[in-house]
Amino acid sequence: MEMFKPLGPRAFRSTSTMMAIMMVLALVAVACGDSGDGSTSDAAAEVGSGDELILDGEVVADADTWEGAQEEGGLTLYTGWGADNEAVFAEEFEEDTGLTVEVVRLPAGRLLERIASERAADIYAGDVFRMGEQALIIDLVEEGAIIPHRVSSWDELADEYRFDDGTYYNWMQSAYSVGYNSRRVNAEEAPTSWEDLLDPKWRGDLAIPDIAAGGSTLALYQFVREEVAPDYWERLAENEPLILGGSGPVTEELARGEVAVAMVLPGSISPTMAEGAPIDWIVPEEGLVLYENFMGLMDRGPNPNAAKVFMNYVLSLRGQGMLAQRLGVYPVREDAPAPVILDRQLPGPTEATLWVQDLEKTLQIRDDLSEEWYEVLDFSP
Amino acid sequence: MASFLDVLPRPGADLTRATLDNYAAILTSTNFSALRNSLIIATGGTALSMGLGCALALLAARTDVPLKPIVQIAGIVPLFMTSLVGALAWASLASPRQGYLNILLREFGIPATLNVYSLGGIVFVLGLYYTPYVYLFVHSALVLIDPEHEDAGVVHGASLVGVLRRITFPLVTPAIIGSALLTFVLMIENFSVPQVLGAPARLYALPSRMFRLMNTSPTQPNVAAAMGIVLMVIMVALIWGQRRIITRRQYTTVTGKGFRPRRIALGKWRWPAFGLVAVYLLLSVIMPVFALGQNAFRPFAYADRLGDLLTLEHLTLSKVTTVLQSGTFELSLRNSFTIGIAAAVLGAVLHMTMSYAVYRSKIRGRQAIEYVAMAPLAIPALLMGMGYLWTWLPLPLPIYGTITIFVLAYISRFMPQGFRGASASILSVHKDLEESAFLSGASRLRATLYVTVPLIRSGVVATMLLLLMLSMRELSAALFLFTTDTRVLSIVIYDYWESGRFDMAATVSLIYSAILLVVALVGRKWLSVGGQ
Description:
The structure holds 2 protein chains of 2 kinds. Chain A has helices spanning about 15-30, 65-70, 85-95, 110-120, 135-145, 215-230, 230-240, 245-255, 265-275, 305-315, 315-325, 360-375, and strands spanning about 5, 55, 60, 75-80, 100-105, 130, 145, 160-165, 170-180, 205-210, 240-245, 260-265, 280, 290-300, 330, 340, 345, 355. Chain A is of the alpha/beta class. In chain A, helix 2 packs across helix 10 (about 305-315) and helix 3 (about 85-95) crosses helix 11. Chain B is built from 25 helices and no strands. Chain B is mostly helical. Chains A and B meet through strand 5, helix 4, strand 11, helix 8 and helix 9 of A and helix 2, helix 11 and helix 24 of B.
């Protein structure tokens, strides 16, 4: 049973080419003329002053939606993604569109609880929803809490990133990787593969996230077993890993040197790395495992137009490029640039294998998978 | 109610779908071990707190221990570090590999390892940070004992230990039992210590287990609620037991006669006794502050030699300035104070009114008010947070997602403490004073406002300060109530920890502890003025 497939050939462009293209597009947009009056001076972001919202030469909102959005002035985003990341995203979005984003960030379980409770009480406070676990977003779709919206870049998206005729989208992918404490382990001794984490020299000196931490960990643990070694879990258990509640505490213990190596999210450890913490990450020989984040339009949200502009923006070339370059996640648009974390470019599909999970199969087996993981790792859920 | 259903008591939910499955789920091995761990933690922690608290109280109240002001400070100063802050600090002091104390042990070639990620570690940290509660109770009881009782023992030839064992301790039994019960209840519902220290060792206590059930997918809120109810049953049983023990005997020791508390001469044990106090202060405050400082004032917390901890190189204020300038900190500070002050003012008014009704009025059913007031003592904070979420959402009042819901939750959560404080001051003013005004022709309201209220002013202020402090410290009840805009300081610390920014959590913790200390100091000054 093939659970994982390498990411197809996506034409990532290098940053410099990308910038050149954006400049050209911007010039074209200016040359086209109809937005010459009072538009922003940002060369890349060309906000059409009159009718539509145009960014990087792409129509992000049609005239009606854009006008409605401007009247609404902003939107409320319900999200399970990191608060730091969302703050950066909101800031960029606001700069590009003038619309404000009120971020309500909660861990997945509490966010769902909140939405269910609100709906039961006939409160509709959120406009856009995004989180990492597909099963949960499907529940919301079934309850009618998420409704369809075809984004402006619909035709640019591959089928695997858009679901049920636009009910929800996979709008980005983040990478899981292997990290190490560079004060405790020098670069030559550092692991170079997922397999290396099973080396007995890391016994008790290795931290991993709990499988229940979210959709990301489901992808991670399926991957190591399907693509690295069938008995990966058993051998991991022999290495007596420190199992922590999520990637946050894993980063913490790695940065303090409480463990020498760990399974980490390069995107999430970058703020700690930027402070000078002695941690680093590798591109494992077997490849990086990617996991998805999903987004949908919320039913009866108070700002439906601004919500649509937001979703269109997320999947626009402008939004996708920003996600890759400022937040270090893999964009889903083929024409967007490759991700960069702290000036280090993440590999594209030609430089390393990028594994993505088969979402349908994950949905079917997720409960059994978690149960078995707990059993093998001797961890009580 | 959610605990009996397989749906949540959201509006429109089918309440006929009753089930006991959620209780059966508690019997699964992990949930059951959480229950067992909780009992071990609370018992061990209470024993430690009792030992430390009674010793400190005895030293401060009844002996000639040197540097007594320091002893008195040692008894209460750990109150300003919440158990969350203490747990974070001890995680960096005694994590098994890179904990600072373990680095120290290695440096001196001592082949031992301290591991705070264990049941023992949780007991130790809880014990340290709940000692002040015991100290406060026992200290005030000891100060009030008439030394004649003890003198009688000495006259009849009892030794010092004999007097303490047969006379002093039995006399303060209500205070000891009361404080033991209080600390046990606080420890068994404590969320942050088992959460921070238990996770790496795969140890759960009931509150951290409940939290996990609510936070990992798929969520199991009904089972979580059932665990909360089990926790509540334990707490109710304990409180009932305490009442039975205390009401069985008469403990009137405070006679109102003037006396000077008798001092025990420690002789050659004076300095060793102070040494014990110093060790406590070192473990509960000095070392944790040092550890937090390492995280807050260095660019990163990695250390592998003692030298790394002591060098003055690389010290930086950048994290402190980042925190102080961040919108998050400003917002949460404002929220914490707004909620704290609102809960203090409204809470004090409510608790005073309730207390007045119970002790001064002849309203039918006034005894029931007292039971209502004390009931929240038995409700675990996490459960209360969940309950507030589910209860207030369906109501047409738009308070959900606002700080008002915190104020309401805190007022009911701290009702036992507020009511006790209010009652103490109302009982201290004799009824006759108000009655005489009433008889002289003043209306009941006027008599109350012009006679009773001014007399209990300092009591009211003290109650408000207590409520302010408790509100500003609270984490557990807030966990299910906050949204992005209504984060409070304790939530910000917890969030930083959960998202992997230990350094930021430590930085905010230091500032937070300093704020609590300042609030208490300012309050104390104000109090002594008001009391004159």
